[in-house]
């Protein structure tokens, strides 16, 4: 399995999802050799569920020396895994959407050739992917395995290479596409790589119906090999007791402050509600390219200290924020899945979520809205502010519901897809 | 006769801690004690102590003919007591010579004049009492925070018993007039002395600038300029060359290696060789003004900050405006609820520097803002400040 992120050093949903998925697969007696973008040429042979936390390491060659580490963090650092959200870098070189469309004319070309052609760029992330992809030959030749499973475009080139080298079947998992990350066009190179990777794959797994529709519409993937496996929720933390930090109700936005997540809609709603509920606290948790813009605009609206910013949060801090949040809001313009709302719900927090998300397909006890419908979003939040009883009721129902969304179910579906390929 | 009037500003804010949302309600200190200690002690060693000792020597050597004035804020005196008591002692020693004048201002170096006139008066009173207590001096010259001045500030100053007021000699205030004359405020109650900003800034900003055509600035060159200000036509009139600057110019903004202390050391000796020059205090204008001063109308506020010399250094962008409005809204609430226990912390948050750090001006002035700011960005300073206000509000 090739992936770009895995805990403890993660930046977003991808790492969290891989963790839950691998753990459940191990429980389902699927063995996983995990390849991450490490500095050293190593892989992580996972054989039992605990291994997702222990992260056992093997060197690919014989050169690797045994070394003792105090803890997993130290090991990860030594192996050179970076803990920053580079997966979601916005590339400056954005070419037109039309140029991308002409690509379909030469679709009979070999995917490997396409990847060689488009995996070009001076950016740090591209050179890292190139390095990672070149290494995939070694892994494919030296390791014993039955299937290759790759996650998102960063590892698709490695997957295609490994498939060519080993002749084994390839599973491409889609957690997010370039269409989610950018508004209309996006980086043409990434589109090409996503397209090539999915076409080369023998099975494509989308994390939601929303994503599978998008993939089918944009990339024309053969429906017979396109599967939907919803992400789930791993209750891997101690639920902190509910705290009261503020006198007024706390409404939370959690995620990167970037176009895809709709932070501007959250601000507009905050502006409307604070005018009426002067004790409401809107908290924007996260960082991103629109952070300063939102800070300035919130000040321009004169929201006093009713609109607060946390900056980038560590995982433990996220749980702490949940412990005093009253209402969770997901305003995403496009959210392939969205694990954060499930985590919030597991804290008994009532959630209002964008219907353009995968998570909206799996929960019933959340209020679903269109991200652009500020009127409805405002009235929904106000309804919850004014009805603490209802808030509690929905929160408790959400908590119960989330407990049923298990990785176990997801892993069984994945195993079935594996079986179909063998 | 030309009277050289030195006024040095001595001030250090209580810099706000890196205060995150999660810190709210957790009894975290609002102010970064370690950082404030470090800065006070660093500036004490580089500037306050050596400069005070030099000025004390000069006062002794010239037997009272070398005169300077200081405006020392309440918040810096508090911090001297905590982190560098020897600095306060050295100022007390200077006070004992009776050769320095102490000015009055707001205790917290605040912008309260612009938002809350009651608070403004309270802070002026607090400062006056402190100066009386620490230095046994009763100030009669007033300078508002950052030299901010407009007509009705003189009304407050008069009410508080002040006779002289200092302001920036901005071009749009003076127009064709010279900053060398004494003026009177719009009601003709107080004397106005205006900063001669080009000559002040030659010392304060350009002294060590190697790209400045006049570099290096020598005492001879400087006094030659002063002597050629076209004063010969004004024989008999007492003129005032007002050199106003941050005290930290000596040893901190301009390092010792630049020769700034030597400049100060040599200056009195050379001044004594000119028959038409002497050192005076701001309050000397009361006795020395031997002509009918013109009235100066200042409708729009002026200050000594940035190129604009207006209020834009502290209240130009929306972050600064929201922070100021939120602050004064809260201060009001604290007073209404009679929560005197929160008042001291709240007042420390009124210091103008907090808003200066939030400035997003670029070009030349942005660099100055950056130089003084302990934060990575204006946005971060805003976030920390707002979080601290929120903690304060939750304690109400």
TrEMBL record, chain B:
Matching InterPro entries: GH57_Enzymes, Glyco_hydro/deAcase_b/a-brl, Glyco_hydro_57_N
GO biological process: carbohydrate metabolic process
Domain of life from the UniProt record: Bacteria
GO molecular function (one): catalytic activity
Domain Glycoside hydrolase family 57 N-terminal intervals: 5-294
Keywords: Carbohydrate metabolism
Family according to the record: Belongs to the glycosyl hydrolase 57 family.
Name by which UniProt lists this protein: Alpha-amylase
